[in-house]
Amino acid sequence: MDKSLGWLILWLQLDWLSNKQEVKQSPEAPNVRERDSVVVNCSYTDGALYSLQWFRQDPGQGLTFLLLIQSNQREQTSGRIKVSLHTLTRQSVLYIAASQPSDLATYLCAVRHSAQQAPVTNT
After folding, report:
1. Which superfamily is assigned to 33-113 in CATH?
2. Which residue range or ranges hold the Ig-like domain (predicted)?
3. pLDDT tens for residues 19-78?
């Protein structure tokens, strides 16, 4: 039996200090069938990236952290979820392998600038 999953993809801009950064995600609402792979793109405008985070939000719930990828990393994986980062093209891609009905959620990306790093403290 082939079930179709409805997906709602939105973008979120968590721009800690500057309002100049733009974050865009696509596709906005892909039509995905169960067991298909899901691909969500996130592009950003500022090249001074420190890290990029992916979240999911289940209907009626708060944000759930998925993965964080730093500018010196190319890929992070957790279970069926993989995130890649392409700093030259200023893009991150979220892959969900073998989609399931429980994957129905809103997926969001957030960017942190390198100028906004927290100070390092020695203990």
Report:
1. Immunoglobulins (2.60.40.10)
2. 21-121
3. 455 666 665 555 567 788 888 898 888 778 889 999 988 889 999 999 999 999 999 999
Helices assigned H by DSSP within 9-75: none
Residue 49 near residue 16, CB atoms below 8 Å? no
- Round to whole Å and give the CA distance between 86 and 119: 26
* Length of the chain, in residues: 123
Residue 66: CA count within 13 A, CB half-sphere? 26
Exposed e or buried b per residue across 67-93, where buried means at least 16 C-beta atoms within 10 angstroms of its C-beta? bebeeeeeebeeeebbbebeeeebebb
- Report how far residue 94's alpha carbon sits from residue 40's, in angstroms, rounded to the nearest whole number: 5
Per-chain mean pLDDT for the chain = 75
